[in-house]
Amino acid sequence: MILALSIALWPGTARGHDASAWGGLFRTRDGGATWFSVNSGSFVSGAIALAISPVDPNHLLLATDSGVLASRNGGRDWTVQAPDVLIGAAFAVAYDSDGARALASGASAIFRSDGDRWYLIQTPARAAPARALARGATPGRVYLAGWSGLYRSDDWGNSWDRADNGLPEEHVDALVIDPGTPEVVYAIAGGRLWVGVDGARQWQSRQVGPPSGRAEVVALDGADPPRLWAVVSGQLFRSDDRGERWQPVGRPLPELHTHVRGVGLMGPSVLLATDRGVYRSPDGGDRWEPPSNDLPAHLEAGPLARDPRSALTVYVGFAFTPYAELWRQAAEGRSALARLDAVNLAGGAAFLALLTLGAALTLRRLGRFYHGTAPLARSSSRPAVTAPEQRNAS
Known about the structure:
Strand order of the largest sheet: 2-1-27-26
CATH class of the largest domain: Mainly Beta
Shape: globular
CATH architecture of the largest domain: 7 Propeller
CATH topology of the largest domain: Methylamine Dehydrogenase, Chain H
Structural class: alpha+beta
Strand content: 25-35%
Radius of gyration: 29 Å
Distance between the termini: 60 Å
Largest sheet: 4 strands, antiparallel
Number of domains: 2
């Protein structure tokens, strides 16, 4: 009990947030005008990645800071996946083209599912925690952006090949697959956009925006042929020729130095998942609306995924702990207790000592109070018999 009380009251950095801001996954069916939580039945403080089945969009896999959850009805109900093998946070998830097989990244390993059973698979060193898992156009093909290195598997994780020859030494932050013919892989690495062809065996750099800007995210929309979108320093860009040429779209985000993690396009509406919440533009980026009141306040937005069969349905996740910190903690293999420094330890010890002293003083005062009222409690309505009265009675 003392340990539980100590953890619950342990001092740390205070965060100002709305009372409902506990992270989790949210969905819109009207292009971001209104939102509602899709995991209200289970406590999720960090939604880290989401995969939507290509066979049935009601089948979802959600990577959270406490494991992997699965839903078969569009998020109304969730079940915990692989609680016996995948312990702790999950960082990336992906479905194969059949919708049955899946992959998930834990903090130190990659796991595969062939239905309801999950098991550990062999992966290259430093592959976990994965930054992204992306399904290829060919059944069984998947790309893995590891903590370091980019890899490709053509047998759904049974074997892996390096796929980063020609990429900069910096890790890959984002992956998008264009399943056209031929298949094209888009990656963000070192603040630049890279285009991979021939199964990501060859890479070419693409300049998006001014040379001084840093590309943060890349996305495809549902147009035919699909258009490519990217964000550089808060400005949205579009390419109609697979990244050869780019043009700015709309105006930059109103707040400087906003980090963008996801882009969602739904006709004229644009959604951007950022470290300051979700921004929405109903007119192609000319006017940006602040984060909706239906979404958690003061929390970072991370994964943003669009329903492949519904142009106006989009999911977005939030985390109470910043996403960069979640990945860093996993890569360094540190627990919550390991993150406490000497100041926190001293503060916690002083608080517990003060709590113990206060409890002792309270008990002492209660003891004095009850000790002083005890004779009254033993008295009765009959007067006490004195010694002379006892002699006369005898």
